[in-house]
Each structure stands twice: as structure tokens, then as C-alpha cells.
Amino acid sequence: MKTRIVSLKSLLMTVGLLFAGMIAFAQQPAMQYFRYYDQRGINVFETTKDDTVVYDGFKLRIGAGFTQGYQNLKHSNGLPPPATPTTPKLYEMAGGFALAQANFNIDVQLYDGVSLNLVSYMSSHHHNEFWVKGGYLQVDKVTFLNSEFFDNLWKNLTLKVGHMEVNYGDTHFRRSDGGQTMWNPWIENNIMDQFTTEIGAELYYKNKGVIAMIGLTDGEIQGNVADPQTPEGAKRKPSLYLKAGFDKQLQDNLRVRLTGSMMTTKSSANNTIFSGDRTGSNYQYVMDNAPVTLTGNFTSGRFNPGYRDNVTAFMVNPFIKFGGLEVFGTWEYAFGKNSLENGEVTTGTPWGSEDYTNRQTHQGSGEALYRFGKNEKFYIGARYQQVTSNLAEGQSATSPGSLYDVTIDRTCIAGGWFVTRNILLKAEYVTQNYDGYLPTGPNNRFYQGSFDGFVVQGAISF
After folding, report:
1. Which residue in 202, 183, 188, 84 sits closest to 140, CA to CA?
2. CA-to-CA distance for 311 and 266, rounded, in angstroms?
3. I want to staple 176 with a disulfide (CB 3.0 to 4.6 A). Which of 4, 26, 48, 184 is the partner?
4. What is the rounded distance in angstroms from the CA atom of residue 46 to the CA atom of residue 203?
5. Sorting pLDDT into bands at 50, 70 and 90, what band is 21?
6. Pairing between strand 101-111 and 254-265?
7. What is the pLDDT of residues 302-359, one digit of tens each?
8. Which are the contacts of 424, defined by CB distance < 8 A and separation ≥ 6?
9. Nearest to 249 by CA among 319, 154, 174
10. Residue 261 or 129, more confident
């Protein structure tokens, strides 16, 4: 009964917010240093320092993103038929509609060059309840200081402060995020999905195509005020991350971007750089054993290396757009440990130590799109991804369990049609394969596993 009441409250809130959004849509104001949620936001990474909107007072912009998908995916593995009716087996799937997802966006122009962004999840494949993603303040001008020195200093600087999406790598600018799927030409994100929100600050330098950034956060998805002398407080160390690159329109029909990123967290109670998504996968229930639940099986098709205690990761992203041709790539290397591997346990005899070898993960991805038609309203493309990682399985306070190498690869062919700049219809054929998994243990459902099929999505963003 309680679940039904919560669902009803969420539904009523969603309807109310949608109604408010529809009213506001007719009078959306122009914002400074803003990334549009519709087609205009595609291939926008960090916002520029181009001052193209005149400040004429306080502005409030209400927006939203909605996505409805239909999937017809089949999965299988190399395990023998179940010995008994109670033996776990893959969930039996057929074609059907996944739960619609919805985001609610609030953007506020507070002052000249100062804005606020707040995004909430109204409906998702993970949390059933209304859930705040985060909010941050962005400062592109400091005229409120009444200082010519700082005005000149800030011409090439941007400061972001708040609970925000960590700017590690470029892939998070092209991923699906709940109901906001307009910027992603594909149905799903990377196999190893780089996304989290943390509390902190990012300082940017942007000048003539050169981009440099340094960021510092609390290192976890949640805040904490525990005493450093306690186990909870002692585990929490900050995350430091850097980005540098070049992004320039070299000719009218040629844009080139290349960035490199690094992030590191020395210690954490629960680091989530590869598991921070609170909305869920867009390949529902693939490679999951029955019974399944919407909130309990929200990571279907993804891989998390489990670096919950400490992690260091590097990413390089090239991007080229020549006319309608668009190429985007990802090279990523990450290593780290969980708390057991560091010997930080409260019971039993710790087998790990600070000298325990870091596990390693590599991810590579290449995608090519061709956009065509008036205002590039159509596109077709293909993408290939591969993850190789040293996997830890069956670890406990007294045993290191099993350590072995696995490989996951994915091939996608996709196409899309922007009916308007706010409405996108896209479809994708996908095949994904698993190699190296053991026929026994908690991950045996992936043994010689694979899935394939197609997914269609309709997206609306404003």
C-alpha cells in the first residue's frame, strides 16, 4: 500500500511539473553561457566564453526531458539448462515497452554571468521516487565585485560550484541521463559508464580553443560530516581531477577537439565514478537472472570494475566533425582497489594489504556518424566498444577469492530523425558478447554470454 501511495504522489507531482513546463515552454528566455537541452545542445561540451546574450535581469527557464523506449532483445549464455525449477536462469524476455523516463530542469540567470542549474529525475529505471540529480552555480563574470582587475582576469575563467556532474572525460557530454537522451545518438552509454555527481568546485581556463580545468570534490556521491577519527570519516578523501585539450572550428566545415583527463581518489567509503548513474540502463534486464525488479536490475549491460576504495583513471577523447561526418573516440585506463583488497575489514583476518596489486581496466570505443538533411535532421552511424578488466569475485574478509580477466565487446548500428529540434526518434541494433567469465560463482550468468536485438526510443527535450 505504501508503494502505491508513493507512486501516486510521484505521478501527481510529475503531472504538475509537466503542466508547469508546458506553460513555461512558450516563453523560454535566452540564457547566458547555456547548453540547450534540445538538438542545439548536441556536440556541446564545456560551455564557451562567447558572450552572445545581453543580460537584462533575472530569468527563469523551466525545461524537461522525456524518453519512451521499445526493446526487443534476446540474451543467452553457455550454462546448461537449469537442474531444478529453482535454479537461477536468465530472465525470459520478449518485445515490450520499458518504463518511460523523465527529467525536470530548472535554469536561472541570477546575475550578469552568474547562473544556477538544477536537474531532478521524475521517473527512472532506478529510483521510483522524485530524485534530485544535483545543482550548481556557474560564474562566467564577476562584475558584482566592482573590480576592473577581476573583470579582466575572469575573461577566460569559469567557476562551477555545487553538487554536480564530475567533468572527467568527454563521454558524459554524449550520454543518456534518465529522460534526457537527446544528446546521445545511441540508445545506451559506454559499457563502463563514466558518470557520477559529487560536491565540489571546478575552475576552467578557456581561450582561443584551449581548455584547461582543475576540479576538487568530496570524493563521493553523498556529503558527510563524520569526524576524521571515526571509520566513516577516515575513509573519505577528496577526488582531484584535471582536463586539458583543444577545441576549435578550424574551417567552416571542420571542427577538431582533443582532450585528456585524469582523476584520482585515494580512499573512499563508496567511490562511484563507474557506478554513479541513478537512472539506469536503457537495455532493460539483459543478462540478468530471474526474478528481476526495475530498481534492483538497473545496471543491465554495463560493467563496473568495483574500485570502491580508491581509483585512478585516465581518458583521451578525440572528436572530429567534417561537414556531416562526425567521429568520436575513447581510450581509457583505470586502476584501483576495493576495501577488502586494502585489508580494511572489521571482521576476520585481513588478507589484503596496502601493497596488494591494483586491478586494471581498459576501455576503447570508436564511433562514426553521418548527419544529413536540412539542419542535419537525420543521422546514421556505427559504434564499437571493448572493455578488458581484471575482475575480483568471491572476496571475503579471509579470502582473496578469484581474480581473472574478462572481456566485453559491443557493436551498434543506429539511425535517428529529428522530427523537430525538440523531438527525436532513434533506433539501434546492438550485439554484445562476454568472454572469460567462469561457469561457476556469482557472475556465472555471463559465462559465454551474449545479447542482441533492437531498441527504438522517442525523446522530447526543451
Report:
1. 202
2. 7
3. 184
4. 12
5. very low
6. unpaired
7. 999 999 999 999 999 999 999 999 999 999 999 999 888 876 655 555 565 555 688 9
8. 39, 181, 182, 416, 417, 418, 457, 458, 459, 460, 461
9. 319
10. 261
Residue 457 pLDDT greater than 90, yes or no: yes
What is the 8-class DSSP label of residue 356?
S
CB 402 within 8 A of CB 441: yes
At 233 the pLDDT is 72
Spatial CB neighbours of 129, under 8 Å, sequence gap ≥ 6: 6, 10
- Given a cut of 60, whether residue 10 has pLDDT beyond it is no
Place of cell 511539473: 17
**Cβ-contact 116, 108 below 8 angstroms:** yes
Alpha-carbon gap, residue 363 to 189, rounded angstroms: 13
Under DSSP, the state recorded for 323 is T
3-state helix, strand, coil in the chain (%, to 5): 10, 45, 45
Segment holding 125, helix H or strand E: none
Q: Give SS3 for 49.
A: coil
3-state SS, residue 235: helix
Q: By the 8 A CB rule, do 82 and 88 touch? A: yes
Q: Which residue type occupies 407?
A: T
Average pLDDT over the chain reads 91
What distances in angstroms separate CA 143 from CA 56, 74, 111, 113, 146, one per listed residue? Answer: 14, 57, 9, 8, 5
List phi, psi (to 5°) of 183: -80, -10
| DSSP 8-state symbol, 80 | P
Q: Residue 194 in contact with residue 332, Cβ under 8 Å?
A: yes
Count of residues making up the chain: 462
Per-residue pLDDT, averaged over 254-258, amounts to 98
- The answer, yes or no, to whether the previous bond of 318 is cis (omega within 30 of 0) is no
Tell me the three cell numbers of residue 425: 526518434
Q: Where are the domains of the chain?
A: 2-461
Distances (CA, A) of 355 to 171, 307, 336, 422: 32, 16, 12, 53
Q: Which three cell numbers stand for residue 387?
A: 572493455
Which CATH number describes the domain made up of 2-461? 2.40.160.10
From the list 184, 319, 315, the residue with the least C-alpha distance to 248 is 319
Output phi, psi for 59, to 5 deg.
-135, 145
50: helix, strand or coil: coil
Three-state DSSP at 333 gives: strand
DSSP state of 149: H
Alpha-carbon distance of 149 to 401, in angstroms, equals: 60
Nearest residue to 285 (alpha-carbon basis) of 68, 23, 96, 45: 96
Q: How far apart are the first and last CA of the chain?
A: 35
Pairing of strands 450-461, 239-251: unpaired
CB of 368 closer than 8 Å to CB of 357? no
